[in-house]
């Protein structure tokens, strides 16, 4: 069976892989958008926290024998605490400055994290086994679907939707959204804004680490795994419009699938297709697809 | 600092640079340092004087290095023409990327330049003539225009020095021109500049293209100095380094980027064999320190210190 001359199983297989990558893009750009919304900081260290999440899982499994399911919870918590410390030590002092300084600061932090991990673990990748319960594959008749891949997509969709729900539909989320509009007014209502900001950063970082744990069994866990994905995620965020939670999720998943399809049609361009789309979107709608000026 | 002190300082610095090879400076290291100084000065034109943070300047630097290297090794083109071709490539890339990126400002601008530079990077990875992981090796220097014997490291050192001085003078000329004043006005208050009737996009794009062209010059010279062009030259890390050089030396000062390039290149040269991956940690720490406590950079701090002193002296009874 072929579609436009390309074998259907190849297309479906790449779409599937694209959706898996798209899940990571969605989780990462979601965290980036949440952090940017409240802190006005573009978290360049987001890729590094994703990497640290994967390493936390790797170390947790190999050195402490913690099960995958616990790691899914513990690794984001541990990395999230690291985020909290970083917010207290560094980020909170630069909120009054030009947002460019936030980008530079977090870039420096990313370099530090990558350097330390490279020193500890070397540059090459480490493999993380797929947990037993998720090994094997479903045979759908028209394609074979590895169970772990399906799990990644399901888990990230649930977490993305959950985050969206918390922010858009709960009282806590309403306070957060109010904070993105007018911090002083929120403070006047007696809400501990610095605490809220700190926890938001921690939560965004934890989301990145969660993506890292999910990714650990499907990619090689390596110190530089975050530095390339963070650039793609930046492009995703520019395409979606930075302020939009929904935009971040939808564009993350969509761009992942487009990237997958490009691998079938013109593999050489699969690395750059997201950036090309970003350029086109900028020319056509500078504020991004879901953004407002 | 007074005019005279500034003049004396620059004269001393120039004298030192001219004498350096005879005082024990290894010329190849000197060239490498000055290539990065040109790169940082070019970068400073947009970061320091018009507050555009490009996170992808390695694209112009690296692609020019590749083009120069390729023209020389594969086609036997002379060094002069190969450098000019590199600059032209930088200008064209700068025009295309700049035109897209200036549609947004601030952090968006930074992210867009980063993403588009990544396109250039991947093109360099995939293109057949860049030599993949190995890069282009063995870029030999023939005499420039058939007369200047730049095969000699010492002669080439002085050529690069002359070009560095030319770039600095050019940037000073640009910044002090009416055009540069408008650029500063845009930096300070863009909406106001728009309301005064300036076509802000055009000013910013011009600055961006100038900066890209000079970065390309730096890249071409670097390929000729060291004799190779590799993926490191187009990588995100190099874009980060030039930001650090400018920031550390002092963005918006004339001499700052040179100081920053000197510090960063020297650090890397001496640390990379000794501490391995810790170079990246040290660079990261300097970044953090620069942002947290040292935003004016070395030259900016020195200037502020002398400014305060002379202000104190003039107000003293």
Relevant terms:
heterodimer, A: 293 residues, mainly alpha, two-stranded antiparallel ribbon, 4 strands, globular, B: mainly alpha
Description:
The complex is a heterodimer of chains A (293) and B (317). The relative contact order of chain A is 0.21. Chain A is built from 11 helices and 4 strands; from the N terminus they run ββααααββααααααα. By secondary structure, chain A is mainly alpha-helical. The mean pLDDT of chain A is 90. Chain B has 14 helices and no strands. In chain B, 77% of the residues lie in helices and 0% in strands. The radius of gyration of chain B is 20 Å and the shape is globular. Chain B has helices at residues 3-19, 27-50, 58-75, 79-101, 106-126, 153-176, 178-188, 190-195, 200-226, 231-234, 236-249, 256-275, 278-293, 297-315. The interface between A and B is large, with 44 and 43 residues.
Helix content of chain B: over 70%
What is the terminal-to-terminal distance of chain B?
20 Å
Q: What is the strand content of chain B? A: under 5%
Mean pLDDT of chain B: 88
List the topology elements.
The complex is a heterodimer of chains A (293) and B (317).
Chain A: E1 2-3, E2 6-7, H1 8-39, H2 46-64, H3 68-89, H4 99-121, E3 137-139, E4 144-146, H5 147-169, H6 171-181, H7 183-188, H8 193-215, H9 225-240, H10 245-265, H11 273-284
Antiparallel strand pairs in A: 1-2, 3-4
Helix pairs in contact in A: 1-5, 1-8, 1-9, 1-10, 2-3, 2-4, 2-8, 2-9, 3-8, 5-6, 9-10, 9-11
Chain B: H1 3-19, H2 27-50, H3 58-75, H4 79-101, H5 106-126, H6 153-176, H7 178-188, H8 190-195, H9 200-226, H10 231-234, H11 236-249, H12 256-275, H13 278-293, H14 297-315
Helix pairs in contact in B: 2-6, 2-9, 2-11, 2-12, 3-4, 3-5, 3-9, 4-5, 4-9, 6-7, 7-9, 11-12, 11-13, 11-14
């Amino acid at each position: 069976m072929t579609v436009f001359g390309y074998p259907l199983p190849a297309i479906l297989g790449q779409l599937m892989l694209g959706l898996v990558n798209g899940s990571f893009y969605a989780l990462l750009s979601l965290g980036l958008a949440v952090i940017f919304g409240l802190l006005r900081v573009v978290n360049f260290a987001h890729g590094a926290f994703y990497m640290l999440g994967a390493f936390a899982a790797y170390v947790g499994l190999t050195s402490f024998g913690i099960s995958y399911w616990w790691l899914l919870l513990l690794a984001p918590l541990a990395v999230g605490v690291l985020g909290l410390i970083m917010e207290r030590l560094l980020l909170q002092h630069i909120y009054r400055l030009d947002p460019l300084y936030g980008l530079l600061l977090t870039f420096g932090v990313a370099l530090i994290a990558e350097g330390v991990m490279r020193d500890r673990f070397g540059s090459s990748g480490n493999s993380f086994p797929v947990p037993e319960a998720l090994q094997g594959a479903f045979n759908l008749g028209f394609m074979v679907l590895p169970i772990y891949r399906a799990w990644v997509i399901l888990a990230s969709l649930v977490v993305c939707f959950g985050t969206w729900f918390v922010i858009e539909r709960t009282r806590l989320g309403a306070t957060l959204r109010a904070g993105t509009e007018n911090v002083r007014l929120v403070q006047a209502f007696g809400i501990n804004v610095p605490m809220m900001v700190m926890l938001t950063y921690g939560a965004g970082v934890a989301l990145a680490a969660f993506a890292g744990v999910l990714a650990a069994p499907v990619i090689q866990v390596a110190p530089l795994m975050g530095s390339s994905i963070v650039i793609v995620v930046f492009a995703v965020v520019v395409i979606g419009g930075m302020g939009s939670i929904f935009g971040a999720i939808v564009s993350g998943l969509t761009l992942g699938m487009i990237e997958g399809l490009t691998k079938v049609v013109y593999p050489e361009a699969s690395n750059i297709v997201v950036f090309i789309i970003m350029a086109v979107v900028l020319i056509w709608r500078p504020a991004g697809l879901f953004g407002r000026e | 600092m007074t005019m005279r002190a500034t003049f004396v300082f620059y004269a001393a610095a120039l004298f030192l640079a001219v004498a350096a090879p005879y005082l024990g400076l290894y010329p190849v290291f000197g060239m490498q340092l000055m290539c990065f100084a040109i790169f940082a000065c070019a970068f400073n034109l947009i970061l320091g004087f018009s507050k555009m943070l490009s996170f992808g300047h390695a694209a112009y630097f690296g692609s020019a290095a590749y083009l120069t290297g390729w023209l020389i090794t594969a086609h036997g083109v002379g060094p002069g023409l190969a450098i000019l071709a590199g600059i032209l490539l930088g200008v064209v890339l700068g025009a295309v990327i700049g035109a897209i990126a200036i549609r947004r400002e601030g952090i968006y601008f930074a992210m867009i330049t980063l993403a588009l530079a990544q396109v250039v990077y991947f093109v360099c990875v995939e293109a057949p003539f860049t030599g993949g992981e190995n890069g282009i090796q063995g870029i030999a220097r023939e005499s420039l225009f058939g007369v200047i014997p730049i095969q000699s490291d010492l002669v080439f050192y002085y050529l690069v020095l002359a070009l560095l001085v030319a770039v600095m003078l050019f940037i000073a000329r640009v910044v002090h021109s009416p055009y540069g004043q408008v650029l500063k006005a845009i930096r300070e208050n863009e909406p106001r500049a728009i309301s005064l009737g300036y076509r802000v996009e055009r000013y910013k794009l011009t600055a961006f293209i100038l900066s890209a062209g000079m970065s390309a010059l730096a890249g071409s010279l670097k390929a000729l100095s060291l004799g190779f062009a590799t993926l490191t030259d187009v990588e995100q890390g190099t874009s980060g380094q030039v930001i650090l050089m400018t920031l550390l030396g002092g963005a918006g000062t004339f001499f700052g980027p040179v100081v920053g390039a000197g510090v960063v290149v020297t650090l890397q040269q001496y640390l990379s064999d000794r501490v391995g991956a810790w170079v990246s940690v040290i660079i990261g720490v300097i970044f953090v320190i620069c942002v947290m406590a040292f935003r004016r950079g070395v030259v900016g701090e020195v200037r502020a210190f002398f400014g305060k002193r002379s202000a104190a002296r003039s107000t003293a009874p």
